[in-house]
Amino acid sequence: MSPSSIDNHTCIDCDTCRWMAPQVFTRVGEMSAVYKQPTSSEDRLKALQALLSCPTSSIRTEVPPPDILEAQKTFPIPVDEKKLPGVYHCGYHSEKSYGAASYLIIHPGGNILIDSPRFTEKLAKEIETMGGVRYLFLTHKDDVADHAKWATRFSCDRILHSEDVEICTADVEMKLEGNGPWSLGDDIMLVHAPGHTEGTVCLLYKPLKILFTGDHLMMTESGLSIMEMYNKYSVPKQVDSVQKLIQFDFDWIIPGHGWRIEFKDFQEKNTVLEAFVREKYNQYSSSYK
């Protein structure tokens, strides 16, 4: 197999393939590109997983990969089996969510799907063997994708902030009101982080110290980012919401877009966030009194 090329006419530069298989894919101009063919079975598998996750099916191969079915069976993919047991990347990114990633938390109180992947029965069957889905938590209105299909498939309760409810999500089962925070049991906190959208909410999984940020905060190839160019509500409020995160205890940021971040400890996390917020306040000082 080898990913021979990426279709520049369909690639939306969502970054999915580049962070899933950085050994194979890179960025050229404003598009992803194949810069090196896989040289090991591990690299080959990651390339196939990226191919299956590409929201626009832009990754091309010269011949159909004979082991594509085996690659399909690897989803959901463990994020880090040793450090983050029970946390999985669902793959199958949706163009409706501009290629955003979706994650699954295996939880004794019922599994939690974070944002919506592209619906495929193959993935649904794998998730079913892992205990199904109790909650579908939607971080914000952009990354809802095939939420209705997943809700029907698993009879799960969808969660979305009321400020981000639109026609396509009017029937979500749980609409968050106000500024929170809210809890899902003792170990999960939902943190209101307005800015990217008015109703953006992050999920803090306390046992493993993970903050799932949706489009609120991410790591890109050029560094920590709030992706101002895609802001739909208020950049200054988004910076304020990043500052609010300093009080919470987490070591990982797992975003909907971009690269995951692992901090050494609480102090390093705060040092990085404080520097980022200070830089942004200086940049947008005219927006503050």
From TrEMBL:
<dbReference type="InterPro" id="IPR036866">
    <property type="entry name" value="RibonucZ/Hydroxyglut_hydro"/>
</dbReference>
<dbReference type="Pfam" id="PF13370">
    <property type="entry name" value="Fer4_13"/>
</dbReference>
<feature type="domain" description="Metallo-beta-lactamase">
    <location>
        <begin position="99"/>
        <end position="257"/>
    </location>
</feature>
<protein>
    <recommendedName>
        <fullName>Metallo-beta-lactamase domain-containing protein</fullName>
    </recommendedName>
</protein>
<dbReference type="InterPro" id="IPR001279">
    <property type="entry name" value="Metallo-B-lactamas"/>
</dbReference>
<dbReference type="Pfam" id="PF00753">
    <property type="entry name" value="Lactamase_B"/>
</dbReference>
